[in-house]
Specification:
The protein has a single domain, classed as 4-Layer Sandwich (Metallo-beta-lactamase, Chain A), CATH 3.60.15. Helix content is about 20%, strand content about 35%. It contains five helices and 15 strands. The protein has helices at about 55-65, 80-85, 165-175, 195-200, 205-210; strands at about 10-15, 20-25, 30-40, 45, 65-70, 90-95, 105-110, 115, 120-125, 135-140, 145, 150, 155, 185-190, 195. The strands form three sheets. Strands 1-2-3-4-5-6-7 form a seven-stranded mixed beta sheet. Strands 8-9-10-11-14-15 form a six-stranded mixed beta sheet. A two-stranded antiparallel sheet has the order 12-13. The protein is α/β, with parallel strands linked by helices and about 210 residues long.
Length: about 210
């Protein structure tokens, strides 16, 4: 199942027999925040503590969140981190983006597995938007959290410090398009979801236009 979440409201966005994804849209940049929850055990992780910490803390308490995973270190994705850490939630980020945060608890490595109850999130380092941008692929279903690496219609912005267009194209082609199935649901850091199959045919067009 898939549905659109309105700003400042959380909703069950996607589910199957083993996992569910809740989504809320927060802050002035309309950031997508996701909670991935293992139905069998009740354990969950929150992806990108972007903003509106009171709302996110409520989600964490209601949905059994154990830890926070950051897709990257840009300011609009990290505003709620101090409040969530103060409440006792560990925050993880890549080593390349760690200095963009005031505080964190753990480093996320590439090509590793994060257990969420009986679920398994595989980490995919996809530099280009930032040096440390990380996507998270759910092993139990065709689903990937893409942060600001891949959106409907193209790659994320590479004009900020640490961004590089050629690098993000390489990341998308080699680490998302080639290994992931066409039906893989892509959940980005802003806006609507898409699929690998919907975006893959446009890669050459993105390269030609340069953004």
């Amino acid at each position: 199942m898939s549905s659109s979440a309105q700003p400042n409201s959380s909703a069950l966005f996607w589910s199957d027999s083993r996992a569910e994804v809740h989504k809320v849209v927060v802050g002035p940049m309309d950031n997508n925040v996701y909670v991935l929850r293992c139905i069998e055990t009740g354990h969950a992780v929150l992806i990108d503590a972007a903003n509106e910490h009171d709302l996110l803390l409520e989600l964490c308490r209601d949905l059994g969140v154990d830890r926070v995973l950051e897709t990257h270190g840009h300011w609009d994705h990290i505003q709620a981190i101090p409040h969530l850490r103060e409440a006792g939630y560990d925050v993880s980020v890549t080593a390349q983006d760690a200095d963009m945060l005031d505080s964190y608890d753990q480093i996320i490595d590439d090509d590793s597995v994060i257990e969420v109850g009986n679920l398994h999130l595989h980490t995919i380092h996809t530099p280009g938007h930032t040096r440390g941008s990380m996507c998270f692929r759910l092993a139990e279903a065709p689903l990937v959290f893409s942060g600001d690496t891949l959106f409907p219609g193209g790659p994320g912005n590479t004009s900020f410090e640490g961004g590089n267009f050629d690098t993000i194209i390489e990341s998308i082609e080699d680490r998302l398009f080639r290994p992931l199935s066409a039906d893989t649901l892509v959940l980005p850091g802003h806006g609507d979801d898409t699929t690998i199959g919907a975006e893959q045919p446009s890669l050459d067009e993105w390269v030609a236009r340069g953004w």
